[in-house]
Amino acid sequence: MNNRLDAMNDVLLGCQECIQGKAKITASSSGRNSYALLRPLINNLVFQASELTESVKEVKRLATIVEDRHASLVGVYTLHRKHDRSRIQTAEARSRGKLLDVRKAKIAMTYHKLDALETKLKAFDSDWKIRQAQFEQFEALLMVPVDRTLDEPTATDCNDSDEPLVPPTSPPSQHSLCDDSSSDQPTSTDCNDSDDPLIPPTSPPSQHAST
């Protein structure tokens, strides 16, 4: 477009030079005669120059319209670009927020799983202690001697307390009941408090008597 404007300006300058040359030519009689001969050509050139002038004006008007439209398009593009940029920033912020929410949920789920595993570990530890105590009891039962039955109480079974083991006492015999601090030897009457007569002990029959 600039090239066309430059060409039109050159044409207008040529027309101006022609007008100035006309004034110089018509200053003399010979020039006026020559101008009269060249008048149709000059009129044609003037007509073309006027058309070119109108064309230049139209081109300038169109150029102004194009520039206005270009400016309006640039403004609309800038506005849309700002809106798009704000939308992009909003979308990025939302995506970051959603990603953060997803991460928060995953972190909470991980903590919940860790708490459940810790609870199971504590239960396993307590169960392990119980099993270990049962195993120790079973091992103690295995240490019982073979010649004894499990129904017979042992010294350790009868003495569950921390008191020392006391040997069992036998019941007092008749001789001990008959013993008195005042008498040195027991008598038959003292040992036989009942009304039955004293019966001497009988010896078992021998083989010679049986024969």
Biggest beta sheet summary = none
Radius of gyration: 71 Å
Order of helices and strands: HHHHHH
First-residue to last-residue Cα separation:
171 Å
Mean pLDDT rating: 71
**Shape summary:** rod-shaped
Strand content: under 5%
Question: What portion of residues is helical?
Answer: over 70%
Structural class from helices and strands? mainly alpha
Number of strands: 0
Total helices: the number is: 6
Q: Flag low-confidence runs.
A: 160-164, 174-185, 188-192
Polypeptide structure, described:
Residues 152-211 are annotated as: Disordered. Residues 179-190 have a biased composition (Low complexity). The chain has 211 residues and is mostly helical. The chain has a domain at 2-124. It contains six helices and no strands. The chain has helices at residues 2-25, 29-142, 155-158, 174-178, 188-191, 207-210. Helix 1 packs antiparallel against helix 2 (29-142). The longest helix is centred in the middle third of the chain and has 114 residues, at 29-142. The termini are far apart.
